[in-house]
Amino acid sequence: MTGTHISVKSTGTAYDQRDMRVMGKLQELRRNFRFISILGFACTLMSTWEIVLASTAFALNNGGSAGLIWTFVIVVVGYSFVFGSLAEMASMAPTSGGQYHWVSEFAPRRFQRLMSYMTGWLCVWGWLSGIAGVCFFTAQLIEALIILNHPTFVPQPYHATLLIIAVAAFSIFFNTFLAKKLPLVEAILLLIHIAGFFAILIPLWTLAPRANAKDVFTTFHNGGGWNSEGTSALVGILTAVISLTGSDSAAHMSEETKDAGVVLPRSIMWSIVVNGSLGFIMLVTFCFTLGDLDSILQTPTYSPLVQVFFNTTNSYAGSNVMTAIIIITLIASAISTIATCSRQLWAFARDKGLPFSSILAHVYQGWDIPLNAIFMSFIVTAILSLINLGSTVAIQAVASLSASMLLTSYMVSISTLLLRRYTGPNLPTRRWSLGRWGAVVNIVALCFLSVFWIFSFFPPTAVVTTTTMNWNSLMFAIIVVVALVYYLLKARHEYVGPVMLVKRDS
Question: Rounded CA gap, 425 and 422, in Å?
Fold first, then answer.
């Protein structure tokens, strides 16, 4: 492409070059990802079976084994429609901007600028808090493993903070010095993701005592004191939602993917098949081998997962190895999350939607990656980790903040797509389409997303105190207010929306 320093070989196919011209964007990043590597990227980022195991305490307390299993099924079904909607938009406009670009194209012209701007902020902070969330899950498992082996160890808030920063720093190394090999790394991590699944599953199948099937599938637990077991299970649905949120990650790597208009939607849809299947099998297995729920929830390790592993193997070495496998895969998730977040930051800064946009949007020749955006992702993660020094409850809410913000961006982008279907003009051409079922898929996706979004703000218990408050709602509101203030002061004079550069008519 004219004006780019990227070699012709790295600019992708003729379709990729055409898409970039249509969207009015310059090819600044190398297209190294193909189907397997981008599928590995999406699957390891979501790390569904790992995340759902690492965060079972919340759902077991609100829903029990039956609630955990059935809400996971509901989320998989609902997200299938969401993934389909996002996949079609990714084929229409395969850009690293993702949702905010799609909103800019599909929203009514007089609303597109503010709507796409706010969506961009939600996506940026959704992924920034996502990094902190997955690093926090990793830190919790490491601390649980230490407690298991050294029962006198008392974790302090600064321990988790330092571990969060350490995991993020390690992930930065992969995203910078190994950036050229990232597609190969992601393909290898996909193998580890699948191999690790069997390394955990087989010991649980062969060594652990098994519960009665009726108890597993029908016994609910209302540890949060809600007015019904159904409400309790819906509060616990957040565990399943978090484990499957992030399907848009592949879209944010679109400008580094060859033949993105076809490869992206296929990888998005296959990611729900792979991760949904692995997650369901692992979850059912875990619930069958759980043992006494009350004792598991009161484990001194603070991690039901680690306690189940120890009860299963009766071996410190066995428990250490099994937990280490999940820690490794969660670190792999952090690597992919930082890559996604940095591309989202870079793309939004390229459209002048953020403070210091010129710095964040800069790409150094030779590196051909958004280095400044990568380092900014690390800096913000380190700052968010400091929240843990004041409140462990607040840092736990960061994971639900990521989910609620990304869910909002999904709802806004799918809503504008649905509106465009009915009001016109015709949708852009795409090489992967939902066909005549598009509107139905979009409507069903929005129905499921509405439920997921509402319960992402619920506290873990019906009686709310400062220690049980879900601070997600407050953090969400603060970010929205800051975004609006910045828009009024500066962004409205600079940000015009990606649609202003699109040349589809020509």
Answer: 9
